[in-house]
Amino acid sequence: MRVSALFVLIVASAASAQSTSNGTNACLTQCSQQAAQNSTTDVKEKLAKCIKDASSLVGSAKCICNSDIAPPFESCLQQTCPNDKASFDTACSMTICPSRLTLVTVYMDTARVSILVSSAVAFPWKARSFLPPSDTDSRTPCPGLNVLANEGVLPRDGLNVTPDLIKQAIKDTYNFDANLTDFVASGAVLFVREDGTFDLHDLAKHGIIEHDASLVHDDADGAEFGSVITNQTKVQAVAALSSDGKVLSIHDFALARLAAEAQSPPLGDPIQGFADMEPSLVLNAFGRTVGDDVVLDLDAFKSVYGENRFPTGFVRKVQPVTFDDVQSVADRITAAKKEITAGKR
Ligand SMILES: *[C@@H]1O[C@H](CO)[C@@H](O)[C@H](O)[C@H]1NC(C)=O
Ligand SMILES: *[C@@H]1O[C@H](CO)[C@@H](O)[C@H](O)[C@H]1NC(C)=O
Ligand SMILES: *[C@@H]1O[C@H](CO)[C@@H](O)[C@H](O)[C@H]1NC(C)=O
Ligand SMILES: *[C@@H]1O[C@H](CO)[C@@H](O)[C@H](O)[C@H]1NC(C)=O
Predict the structure, then answer these.
(1) How many C-beta neighbours within 10 Å does residue 165 have?
(2) How far is CA 179 from CA 97, 149, 176, in A?
(3) HSE-up (13 A, CA, CB side) for residue 142
(4) Structural domains of the chain ordered from first start
(5) Nearest CA to ligand 3 atom 14
(6) Angle at 66 between CA 63 and CA 69, to 5 degrees
(7) What is the pTM of this model?
(8) Residue nearest to atom 3 of ligand 4 (CA)
(9) Is the Cβ–Cβ distance between 180 and 277 less than 8 Å?
(10) Residue nearest to atom 9 of ligand 1 (CA)
(11) What is the per-residue burial (b if ≥16 Cβ within 10 Å, else e) of 9-34?
(12) How far apart are CA 185 and CA 163, in angstroms?
């Protein structure tokens, strides 16, 4: 992992860093390079080892915040871009405050839901059209991102994209507000190369964003990259959990998460939280409210998870989807899992 990319990640995670069009922040890039130049080999090696041993993004972030490389970095930020220094300090304080962990680590399998179907508007990109990926197209384990590439909202080859491009596509397509968009896209910053771009498949690197116990993918099972191939047997198994044969409810997704987790090693924090959040993102982008439940029609489930394409008649939500919307449905999925598990004992 390049140190400068991690710096950019931490600051970007604070959701306020001003990005340039190539998806990186020139000041952050410059300061991280300068800080690295000004630091001794010993300091850099210690940092590299700490990051290598860290089992999570939060762990990596802590390495940087606690490293002797941080003071020259901050001093450069203070001189060159004081607002980014404030963001960096905030992000570092988040790494030691568990309730804010999600904002630092961020990103996940994907995104979608809505609570406000009645106010949905027509999707602005009617002209876009679905094409399944070719063998050489680069894809993620995240259905919601793959949808954007397969529909031509993102470059179809999935190569050389930038975090800013991802953010714009998510905002325009799923109407996630700025906060949620930053949250969903911030993990991507980790994978950015020197030229400011990354390929969608980079996100499949196991154990960073990608994780085991996916609803529709096989476990990485020792491989460097998790599978981006949808396992159709799993798609059918999840669809079969529908309580009424028409939709997947919060309860049904809880069943699906439990079934997936029963087959894989424990996920651990904070990945477990993200794993419960992933169906919430889908529900918020593609689902609809029924009474006090939020549901995803089975047809939509099969389109999004099975084929990574827009459901028939897809419309984006009129009301921007917020981080709290997603967290609240995720909390209900987590609670339903606990209830189901308790009921079985
Ligand atoms: C880092 O080195 C540059 C020259 O490469 C120097 O101008 C700058 O003051 C140094 N910054 C710190 C914080 O040591
Ligand atoms: C963004 O998220 C943070 C943390 O959840 C919250 O404190 C802040 O109010 C949010 N900002 C907006 C504009 O929603
Ligand atoms: C990104 O673009 C800015 C100006 O647009 C440039 O100064 C900077 O070097 C670029 N960063 C990378 C990593 O290419
Ligand atoms: C797909 O999932 C099924 C059920 O979990 C499993 O038996 C199978 O090995 C998986 N992989 C493939 C390539 O079918």
Answers:
(1) 19
(2) 19, 22, 8
(3) 33
(4) 6-119 (no CATH), 143-341 (1.10.489.10)
(5) 195
(6) 90
(7) 0.63
(8) 233
(9) no
(10) 76
(11) bbbbbbbebebeeebbbebbbebbbb
(12) 6
CA distance 73 to 219: 38
Q: How far is the CA of 50 from the centre of ligand 3 (A)?
A: 28
Hey, which of 31, 34, 69 would you mutate to test ligand 1's pocket, going by the most ligand atoms within 8 Å of its Cβ? 34
Report the chain (345 residues): mean pLDDT per 10 consecutive residues. 48 40 58 76 76 66 79 86 74 54 28 17 47 94 94 91 90 91 84 90 88 93 91 97 97 97 88 92 96 96 97 87 95 96 83
- Ligand 4 pocket, CB under 6 A: 218, 231, 233-234
Count of other CB atoms within 10 angstroms of residue 221: 10
User: Distance from the CA of 199 to the center of ligand 4, in angstroms?
Assistant: 26
